[in-house]
Specification:
The chain is α/β, with parallel strands linked by helices. It has 22 helices and 14 strands. The protein has a 5-stranded parallel β-sheet, with helices on both faces. A 4-stranded antiparallel β-sheet has the order 1-2-4-3. Helix 7 packs across helix 9, helix 10 packs across helix 11 and helix 16 packs across helix 18. It is globular.
């Protein structure tokens, strides 16, 4: 899963007359995909480094991914030499949390618990750690090692090795740093709002994290299917369609302008459904007619979906996020066949009138057909997973939703493993992963809402971010120096970029408190600081009068600069 993610920055034009003027060209929202990838990957030093292979393993250089994985190769040899009779030991490498090094190997305590009753020569985890360190093969990556506490092996990376790799990247291009993954095609399922409801601040996390994952996989030359699994099917469409017929007897009058805000349209139809038994009965009949394919009802459903789709697309355009919609309705025709296949394998059982799959270790079953014969989220998700594996031939399917859905997806994945769709071992393909995230909170520590206790609309949050950015630029007199178009572009780049970065810099799995003041602060770990720093750097390059492409070939990266570069351009991926 993802530990932390970088903000996606695009390159600054070196022809700008002012470092601040460069700001409106900085954001990934106004760059081509190739520009975005090149700029993004300048910041992927630890996650996508081009490294030299271990001296004792190979002498030929190869493109082999990030530092963590390279260290895993080194420590794998050390572990095999330390405990040759333990065959199922995998290196546990993590970034150092203390000041003892850059990375650490955390295998000693676990190994000690496995071997202490087997007549081992070791007297505790600390000696195990010492042995692991002594058995490390020579590697130009490693400057020094030390053992701390109960056997933690701390590693200090070689500054000379970092300098050489950065130098080589400058000459050969950032594309050579792309990790080589074992997967060729992946599906990233993210964003996924519900039709007839507006996107809210919770969708920001799924959309931004999912887009970042897709970009990283694409940088690693993986074919990525960006899927928007919108909620476009279900019983709620009965009340929406019936209310549409009631308000607009002439279907030609039911356009986007007439319907108005879909959120309010949904609210009014829900009120009628809850308060009017006759309307409720008509709405339930409308669901049956829609699902049976009656043209009039299907056309009304498609009309509601299209109005929602246009609103979603406006948000995606502002965020520069690309998605291909394949909603719940797309997979609905596949559900009966998938359930039939699972039934033939003996996985489906009857329970209290419903059809379920029992999952080992879980007290509740996975219901795939309700007692009334209807399908649900589990049946749709199983059909979608089957389609992605068998029709789209994806090897890795990643779902980006809030952490509250973790159990649901764990059960779906377990059922798929029992069916033989997914590998039983999550380290091999095909596999599925759930990337969960925490809630966005207000400064009162509760779920972020408006003063009227409504969920904050995502479009309102983006508007506020842009408007605040523009106000700051005007305070600094930029409206006197720039055209209105340049001012608007810069406000969008800074405002939207700040919203992205503020979300990504927080721990993915925990809740975080949203603050416009912190998000748009020009000091500290913020997008605004990075954008201005980038602009200043471009100004220095421009004023130097040097041919940067030529300088790459003849200049040298020194060790101290290399260390600073690695520290500033790094992030981690834990997978």
């Amino acid at each position: 899963m993802i530990g932390s993610l970088t903000f996606l920055l695009a390159p600054v034009s070196s022809s700008s007359s002012s470092p601040f003027l460069s700001l409106h060209r900085l954001s990934c929202f106004h760059s081509s995909p190739s520009d975005i990838l090149r700029a993004t990957t300048r910041r992927l030093a630890l996650a996508a480094t081009k490294t030299r292979s271990i001296t004792s393993m190979a002498t030929e250089e190869e493109n082999t991914g990030n530092v963590k994985r390279e260290l895993e190769k080194v420590f794998d040899l050390a572990l095999k030499a330390t405990v040759p009779n333990e065959t199922d030991v995998r290196p546990l490498i993590a970034a150092c949390t203390a000041k003892f090094g850059d990375y650490q190997c955390n295998n000693a305590m676990g190994l000690w618990s496995k071997i202490k009753g087997k007549g081992t020569e070791f007297k505790g985890p600390q000696p195990v750690g010492q042995a692991i360190m002594k058995n490390l093969p020579p590697s130009e990556m490693i400057e020094s090692c030390s053992v701390a506490g109960p056997g933690f092996v701390n590693v200090v990376l070689s500054k000379n090795w970092m300098a050489k790799n950065i130098q080589k990247m400058l000459v050969d291009g950032i594309e050579t740093w792309a990790p080589k993954l074992r997967v060729k095609k992946a599906v990233v399922d993210f964003s996924s709002p519900n039709i007839a409801k507006e996107m809210h601040v919770g969708h920001l996390r799924s959309t931004i994290i999912g887009d970042s994952l897709a970009r990283m996989l694409e940088f690693s030359n993986v074919e990525v299917l960006r899927r928007n699994h919108v909620g476009d099917w279900g019983t709620q469409f009965g009340m929406l369609i019936e209310y549409l017929f009631e308000k607009f007897p002439n279907s030609e009058d039911a356009n986007e302008t007439a319907i108005g805000e879909l959120q309010e349209f949904y609210r009014r139809s829900k009120n009628r459904f809850d308060s009017d038994p006759a309307f409720k009965e008509r709405a339930q009949q409308a669901v049956v007619r829609l699902q049976s394919g009656e043209p009039k009802y299907h056309e009304a459903w498609a009309q509601i979906c299209e109005i929602s789709r246009k609103e979603f697309d406006k948000v995606y355009k502002r965020l520069r996020v690309d998605l291909e919609e394949k909603g719940e309705s797309f997979y609905n025709p596949y559900i009966p066949g998938v359930i039939d296949e699972l039934s033939k394998q003996g996985l489906v059982e009857d329970s209290q009138g419903a059809r379920v799959i029992f999952i080992e270790g879980v007290n509740i079953p996975l219901i795939i057909v309700k007692s009334d014969g209807g399908f649900n989220y589990a049946s749709t998700d199983l059909a979608a997973l089957w389609y992605r594996l068998n029709e789209e031939k994806a090897e890795w399917i990643i779902y980006v939703t809030d952490v509250g859905q973790q159990l649901h997806f764990d059960m779906v994945f377990s059922a798929a493993k029992r069916a033989g769709w997914l590998s039983a071992d999550d380290s091999t393909y095909p596999k599925a992963s759930h990337v969960g995230f925490g809630l966005v909170l207000g400064e009162d520590g509760k779920r972020l809402r408006t003063r009227f206790s409504e969920v904050v609309r995502l479009v309102d949050l983006l508007d506020e971010a842009k408007n605040r950015s523009k106000a700051v630029l005007i305070e600094r007199g930029k409206d006197k120096e720039w055209t209105e178009e340049e001012l608007e572009q810069t406000a969008e780049a800074v405002g939207y970029g700040a919203a992205k970065y503020f979300d990504l810099k927080n721990n993915r799995l925990t809740n975080y408190t949203f603050s416009f003041d912190q998000m748009l602060n020009d000091k500290g770990n913020t997008a605004v600081y990075l954008l201005y720093a980038h602009a200043r750097i471009c100004s220095i390059i421009r004023k130097s009068g040097k041919d940067i492409e030529e300088l790459k070939k003849v200049g040298l990266v020194f060790e101290v600069e290399a260390l600073t570069m690695f520290q500033r351009l790094s992030f981690s991926i834990n997978s």
